[in-house]
Every structure is written in structure tokens, then in C-alpha cells.
Amino acid sequence: MKVVKIIIVQLVVFAAGLIGVELVLAYSMPLPVHGGMYVDAKGAIVYLADTEVTLKPNLDVTHVSAEFSKRIRTNELGYRRVNDDSGAADVIFLGDSFTFGHGVADEETFVSVACTRSKLVCQNLGRPGTNTFEQIPILRHALEARGMRPRTVVVVMLAACWLDSEGNDLGGNEAYYQRQRSTSITAAPPAGSASLVKQLQRMLGRSEIVKRLMLIASSGIKRGLYVCSSDDRLEAGVEATRAALNVLERMGAEFGFKVTLFSIHPYQEFDGAFRTTTKLVEKAVPESMHYVPTGSRFGRNDYYPYDGHFNAHGHATMAALIEAALAER
User: Fold this and answer.
1) Main-chain dihedrals φ then ψ at residue 291, nearest 5 degrees
2) Torsion of CA 286, 287, 292, 296, to 10 degrees
3) Which residues does residue 94 pair with via DSSP β-bridges, in sequence order?
4) How far apart (Å, rounded) are the C-alpha atoms in residues 152 and 206?
5) Alpha-carbon torsion 147, 148, 149, 153, what sign?
6) ∠ Cα 227 130 212 (to 5°)
7) CA nearest 248: which of 143, 101, 329, 114?
8) Distances in Å between the alpha carbon of 205 and those of 34, 237, 279, 308?
9) What is the pTM of this model?
10) Superfamily name and number for 37-328
11) Residues with Cβ < 8 Å from 321, sequence gap 6 or more?
12) Tens of pLDDT, residues 87-138
């Protein structure tokens, strides 16, 4: 009984200590939530969205997280600012937060770097948190409401063989496609610890102690616990993505532009899983599209370890690939 009492007392003291540390950190040295937040010059939180197809125009905010603090601006049309982003765009970029430039300054995004060095007029229509289906109305609005007539539309797709990974277009397209067809997704998430990582981040991501532990260990944990989804779900993701890309192909014929598609990957796939994902994307791409896989060109140093998005080095690597592809066309 004495041993049990000692253990209980030690556990209570340990728990009280954790609570005390959490309170001190929360009130004296809080870190931004995972993914960061946008703040204005006075430190007030700002939300980027204006409508479903545009961001708030003429924003000038700072994107703050535990790993970066970067200036973010939008132009008068409600798109991320580029070097020369007039309405008469030669090239339009379509994608999610990677294309938008999550975690890097305006001049560091791969859109800005590639377009500046290639002397192209570009518009960055990247929208955080969107899948390919959701990006199509954004493009159509630019074409119809803004009157843009680009020669090329560059689509950058984050793809991974774990369909439930954050921001994965294959998984996002699958979920969207199933909802549109009025059917529910009955397949369960993969029975692996990768799902546990995602759930723990959501449950504990606001804890100051957990934030700091994840900053130290997140990269290794995510990579070590990564697992691909089942074959039937992967095929569903391919089918959905093919349907979305077919819509883009028809839009290209209607408005007279060519589509160049790039697939990029979360750093967890660099143990070789990106080859599986590349084959999946290849199955979904229409023959008329120029497809550029990129998995072998990136490394861990191209990503923020905790946040998971490209850092400035990753954007520079991507910009070089884009420049080469556009030069070929």
C-alpha cells in the first residue's frame, strides 16, 4: 500500500507540474496553432477568404507560426500577389496552400520566382484548403468574370497514397466526388497509427507543451507512422481525380489554354511511397495534359518539419521545375 500511495502522490505531483508549465507557457510564451495565423499590423487575426472564389483584395498581413513569420499580400483582384499580376495573365497557377505560398513571403513563392525569372505575367489563384474540384470554380471565375485568357494553366496537386493525409488532393477529390454523387464513403480510414497522429494533432494541438514536443519530434513521427490507403480507396481517388481533370481539359478546349500538371508530395513519402502515388496520378491524367512528376527532386530540407509545407528552398526547387516545363511548351 505504501508503494501504491507513493506512486499516486508522484503522479499527482507530475500532473500538477504539467498543468503549471502549460499555464505558464499559455500566458507568457504562447505559440501559434499548427498552421499559423494571419495577423494585421496591430496583431489582430485576419481571415483571408472573401468569397468562395477569391480572397479579400489588397490585404497586407503577416503569416505567423512557430516556424516562420512572413508577409502576405493580395492584389486588387483577390489573389496572392506576384511580380506582375495584371489581369492579362500569360500563365495562371491553380492549387492549394502550396501554390498559394503557405509560410513564405510574396517574393519567395514558386509562382513569383518562376514568373519573375521567366519574365511572364502570372496570376496565383492558389487557395488554401481546396481540392481540384473546388479549384475549378476559382479558375472559371477568373476566366469569365475577370476576362483572363492565359496561354497556360499550371495545376499543382499535392498527392499522397494515404488519402486521409492533410491537404491530399487525391483524398479531397474522392470525398468531394462521392458527395456529389450522393453516396456516402463507407470505407473506414486505414487502421494504422497514421490516423492516430492526425487525431492527436486535432485533440492536443492547442496545448503549449504538445506544440513544443511536436516541433521537435513531428517530422520523424509522421514519417515513421505513414501508411498507404487500401487499394479500393486509392482507385476511388484516381477515379475522382480523373473526373476533375477531365473538367479542366474541357475548359482548356473552351477557353484556349493548355494545362500543365505537377504532382508534389508530403515529405513522408520520400522513403519511396511517392513512386506509388505518381503511378496513381498518371492513371488520372488526360492524354492532352502535360504531366510533370516531381517526387525525386525534393528532400526533407525543402519542407518545414512541423508545418509540412514548402519552405523558401522548396519553393525555389519547384520554381526551377516550372521554368523548365514552361520553356518546353
Assistant:
1) -105, 130
2) 90
3) 155
4) 41
5) negative
6) 55
7) 143
8) 7, 28, 34, 15
9) 0.81
10) SGNH hydrolase (3.40.50.1110)
11) 262, 292, 294, 297
12) 789 999 999 999 999 999 999 999 999 999 999 999 999 999 999 999 999 9
Sign of CA dihedral 115, 315, 237, 202: negative
Per the CB < 8 A criterion, the answer to whether 308 and 266 are in contact is yes
In what order do the strands lie in the sheet containing 258-264?
Answer: 122-124, 91-95, 152-158, 258-264, 290-293
State how far Cα 316 lies from the chain centre.
Answer: 16
Task: State the Cα–Cα distance between residues 223 and 266, nearest whole angstrom.
Answer: 9
- Over residues 184-213, mean pLDDT: 50
For the chain, give the longest Cα–Cα distance.
81
pLDDT tens digits along 15-26: 776 566 555 545
Q: Where are the domains of the chain?
A: 1-30, 37-328
Give per-residue pLDDT as tens, 205-221. Answer: 556 455 445 555 555 54
